[in-house]
Specification:
This protein has ten helices and nine strands. The protein has 318 residues and is of the alpha/beta class. Strands 1, 2, 3, 4, 5, 6, 7, 8 and 9 form a nine-stranded mixed beta sheet that branches. Helix 3 links the parallel strand 2 and strand 3 (87-91). Helix 9 packs across helix 10.
């Protein structure tokens, strides 16, 4: 947790009236857990079951499923749970994860919004851990670990690039960071009101697995003075076995390059120009220096793919 310089938890003599009011406020905190989904009904059903079973003893949340124009039987599956007052289902017609997330924010009536992916299993203490983090009023954005669900991470995937398989682990100590993974990030409603929601020009659109939507959102949040807090005990387990192959990793690295170029061009022209020079030089020198080990060689392949996505996007956008 944050040190004594944050919020009300200072070194002054304890005021039991204030403590009581704060404890009551924590108890009354209401969460909206939002799952955005597109044509992933098998995973989605398991995720809904995970939330409902893991949080069976909690009465301070609502589960909202945003269906982003699925063509499978997503509606029928979610309807099985609509008899529960805590479950809601909404169709967002505008295609794209950012549109779906913005719809979830618009529908939010509760103090804290939690986005999880449609293919995760959440930790049983998920909400109690958020309670502890958000009891400090200075904490506005919280995320945590995204670990592989019952899957071995292959040796050829360097730790530095495990985020390309949607794995996120910044260690076991709470701290402020600059990025979180979309599968496990939360914030107070006023953050979204201030920042303006997710940029609909970045992020996945239908079957197109672009990325960067949460990166761009968090960048704008930090530009407005919000800090991003990493809580290592806040864990979701991601079902990523289908992503642990080199073709997927290289394609997603390319896609991240595309999204990063869009973000950079929007927010920082100088950084864009410097990256273009750096990446173009690197592509020209490709092969001059090579690694003899498998992980080193694949690292270079990832870098090439990401740089190529960046450079081709800048060229297309002029």
């Amino acid at each position: 947790m944050p040190n004594k310089t944050y919020g009300v938890w200072g070194s002054q003599p304890q005021d039991y009236t204030v403590t009581f009011k704060l404890n009551f406020l924590i108890y009354m905190l209401r969460y909206r857990i939002i799952i955005c989904t597109y044509n992933r009904v098998a995973f989605l059903k398991e995720t809904i079951e995970s939330v409902l079973s893991r949080l069976a003893d909690c009465d301070n949340y609502e589960l909202l499923v945003i269906d982003n124009n699925s063509t499978d039987n997503t509606r029928e599956v979610v309807e099985e749970y609509l008899h529960l007052p805590i479950v809601r289902y909404i169709v967002e017609a505008n295609q794209g994860l950012s549109f779906a997330r913005n719809r979830g924010i618009k529908e939010a009536k509760h103090a804290i919004i939690a986005f999880i992916d449609d293919d995760v299993d959440i930790h049983p203490d998920y909400l109690s851990i958020l309670d502890k983090a958000y009891k400090d009023p200075a904490i506005q954005i919280v995320g945590g670990k995204v670990l592989a669900y019952q899957t071995h991470i292959p040796d050829w995937l360097p730790v530095k690039y495990q985020y390309l398989a949607s794995i996120f682990d910044q260690g076991d100590s709470p701290k402020f960071v600059t990025k979180l993974l979309g599968a496990n990030h939360t914030f107070r409603r006023e953050v979204a009101d201030s920042v303006g929601g997710y940029n609909t020009k970045v992020g996945p659109i239908g079957d197109s697995k672009l990325g960067g939507d949460e990166d761009e959102f968090l960048y704008r949040a930090q530009q407005k003075g919000y800090q991003v807090y990493y809580e290592p005990e806040l864990i979701v387990y991601h079902k990523i076995a289908n992503r642990l192959n080199k073709d997927f990793i290289l394609q997603y690295a390319y896609n991240i390059g595309v999204s990063t170029a869009t973000i950079d061009q929007t927010h920082n022209k100088l950084r864009t120009a410097l990256k273009v020079l750096k990446y173009a030089s690197s592509q020209l020198l490709d092969g001059a220096f090579s690694s003899t080990d498998d992980q080193g060689a694949f690292t270079r392949s990832i870098q090439r793919a990401q740089q190529r996505g960046y450079l081709e996007t800048i060229k297309q956008r002029g």
